Structures are given as C-alpha cells and as structure tokens.
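Worked Example 4.2. Consider the chain below.
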Amino acid sequence: MPRLGSHMSIAGGLPLAVERAKIHGCDALQIFTKSSNQWRARELPREEIAEFRDKVERASIRPVVAHASYLINLATAEPVLRERSILAFGEEIDRAEALGLLGVVIHPGCFTSGTEDGGIRLVADAVRRVLKTRRRGKALVILEHTAGQGTSLGWRFEQLARMIAHLEGHPRVGVCLDTCHMWGAGYDLASEAGYHATFESFERMVGLDRLRVFHVNDSKKPLGSRRDRHEHIGQGTIGREAFRRLLNDARFDALPMILETPKTEGRRATSVEKDPLDVGNLRTLRALLARGRDGRR
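Applying the procedure from the previous section yields the following structure tokens:
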C-alpha cells in the first residue's frame, strides 16, 4: 500500500519533525531542512543529525524527503540569482545526504527572461552542475510538477521529459507529482477517463520509473486554472473519487503520498501535538484506501 504522510514543521529542531510525524501515524515524511524563505541556513550539529536519523529509523518512517527553499530558481538567466540558486540547491542536497533522506523535492523555477526552451536547458544545466560535484552521493533531485502559474516550468509532462532528456536520463533525477498542481495544469484527475489519460501521458513522456513522490492535496481552484491553492482532501474541486483512484492504484503501492494541506493556525511553533487538520486529512485518505481495497464504494 502507499505510504501516507505529511509535511511536518522542523520548529524546535529536526528531530521534533519526526516526533510530529510519529504521533500522526505517518509512514512517510517531508520536511524543510532550513527556513524555506531564507537563503542562509544554520549549520546542522552532528548530534542533531544523529538524533534525527535514529528517530526516523526507530519510527520506521520512510522515505523522508526534503522540500527545497522557495527562493531557489534554477531556470533564471539572471547571473547573480542563478549562482545563488545553484549554490543554495547544492547545500540542500548536502543536508539531505547528511540526514539520510531520499532526496530533495524542488520546483524547477521560472524563466523570468528568454524562452521556455532556454529555461528548461538552464534547469538541466543547474542540476547537472550540482550532481557533478557530488558523484558519490545518493540523495535524489526530485523535480516537482507545477501548476503553471506565470512562467513557471514543469507544468506540462513534456517539459519535465525535456529536462530529463537534457540530463541524459541521469539516474539521480526523479519526479514528484502534486495532485493540486496537476489539476491546475489541466490534467483531469476527477473523471475516470481523465485519470487514466493523465497517467498514460506521464508514463509515455516521463516514465513511471521516474516517479518518486506524490503530494496529495485537493484544490481551491478549478481544473486548468494554473493556480496553486491547496485544499483539504475531498473539500475542493478535485473531489474524493480522484484520491480513491490514486490510493488504490496498484502501480503506486510502494510510493509515499504526502499531504501539504493547510495546518491549524495559532498553535505554538515548537509544540509536538496532533494537528486536528492533519488528523482529519489522514483519516480521510485511510478511509478511501480501505474502502477502495475491499471493493466497497
């Protein structure tokens, strides 16, 4: 069965993210390894790394992935931002390596000038540079499919395929599919025909062997809006049936499916306690999985 989890806060230290995942009964986990809206990152003490890895192993939470900073733009042609982005992404990969993570999920970025093809080539070049200097590493670069707002890249499967082709099919490059982003990009997951057509297209253009992670989020916006607005499972425009199909699709049995749905506001940042919204979304997913597997609707 798919491994269900959620993105958890690292407030108070990385080991607390594992504690938060554990009390929610998560099988998988996503974290930031640093502040998502700052370039600078604090150094990770060896003791904290060791404690984090130990807690992950003891809780049997796997895989754990990081999400890269939102400031990074691998598609930009602006020299200063480009170099800063590549250096920062390299650091994200190094932190994931030290923590024993599967890899780093990253939005490919926006081509703020130039052309789509030029932006795709810049993304591939940036990934190549990062991996070339880390040949002995294992952490994956996981390109996230986007909703397509503005000049963001990766919102069509063709774009992801071209990035991977420019990287000559590098074995350390994978893909993350986000249900909200696919919906926003115009991939109809709600109807049975649309669902099958979506994954047939992905398999043909990218390949299911590249798929490493799902982000499971409903959407506040309509199909094809090219907007990224996450909603709780079954409460948005995608609807429950799409998630039932996904959860019970045998092709994805071993993959992590990670929530990025809204959290309860006004809670102490460093607290380790159940979030009712995470509890509710995980309960909904598990119920859809159970009903789908035993044939009941």
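The radius of gyration is 18 Å. The chain is about 40% helix and 15% strand. Compare this with Example 4.1 before moving on.
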